[in-house]
Amino acid sequence: MKLLTLNFLTCAIKSCKSSPASFPLHPRDATLEIIESDLNLAFLRNILPRLMWSELCTITRELGLPALPETVPTGEDMVEKKEGEEEVASQTAKDLHRVLLETGIREGGLVCGNCGHEYKVLEGVGNFLLPGHLV
């Protein structure tokens, strides 16, 4: 499960829907994996406005990953320089790509900050089905 996914997940329990503590889900006993992929500057520029930046920074701190900048990078922060028609990615872009698109949770759990319910992650797939008594 890519870390980017955590920026769009919240607790599914009905009583948590109105609580701001139900987002983000916090990783617990997470085993991380890195799957390298090609850097896509256009995608990074497009996803930046959609990210909940402070929550993403919280998740990276909880996982012990390198710190992200305090403020959301701009599109200009993604490019170090242009060589002719080709843009060269900045270190900020490379770090953000590494965190969002190459780092994933292989095993562990995701815990709601409101109710404490833990969603298991096995083989990189989160199980978000709730037991009958929590639906």
Automatic annotation (TrEMBL):
Record GO terms (molecular function):
protein heterodimerization activity
Ranges that cross the membrane: none
Cross-referenced Pfam families: Trm112p
| One GO BP annotation of this record | rRNA (guanine-N7)-methylation
Looking up InterPro entries in the UniProt record yields:
Trm112, Trm112-like
Family from the record: Belongs to the TRM112 family.
Name the record gives this protein: Trm112p-domain-containing protein
- Species of the source: Polyplosphaeria fusca
